[in-house]
Design a protein that fits this description.
The chain has 137 residues and is of the alpha/beta class. Helices cover 41% and strands 19% of the residues. Strands 2-1-3-4-5 form a five-stranded parallel sheet, with helices on both faces. Strand 4, helix 4 and strand 5 form a beta-alpha-beta unit. The termini are far apart.
């Protein structure tokens, strides 16, 4: 089973995304942290195949969590930063190589990128890759 940590202070978003992943990718397990401080303990004590981290949260931003995760041994290429900001802003803030991807979580076309990542994890977890989910249609 592939294990994902989803860190975002907006419970409606985390519930929606975790439900989508559970329905579409049955071999992936999603742990949700709506508090970035609580997420620090999860990162320290659990091995994750993927982390999805919101950029802007109260008390601690996503870049600090990214730094903490990589310092504790998480491969930066297993971390996706999510934000509601525009792509140009995000790519200046997180240039290529900072993490696996930086995505606007509200743009439908970005869903195709997440689906490719989830499908790859599903396949690594021993299941068949999931057919294209429509890429935002």
């Amino acid at each position: 089973m592939g294990r994902i940590l989803l860190i975002d202070d907006y419970p409606a978003f985390t519930d929606f995304l975790a439900g989508y992943i559970g329905d579409s990718y049955p071999l992936l397990q999603v742990d949700i942290c709506n508090n970035p401080i609580v997420a620090l303990q999860c990162i320290k004590t659990t091995v994750y195949d993927l982390m999805l981290i919101d950029l802007e949260m109260p008390t601690m931003d996503g870049l600090k969590l990214l730094s903490f995760a990589t310092q504790t041994g998480m491969d930066k290429n297993r971390i996706v930063i999510l934000s509601g900001r525009e792509a140009d802003f995000l790519h200046k803030l997180c240039p290529m190589g900072t993490c696996l991807a930086v995505l606007n979580k509200f743009e439908a076309r970005q869903k195709a990128v997440l689906d490719m990542i989830f499908s790859s994890l599903q396949k690594k977890a021993g299941g068949p890759p999931v057919p294209n989910q429509g890429g935002g249609n």
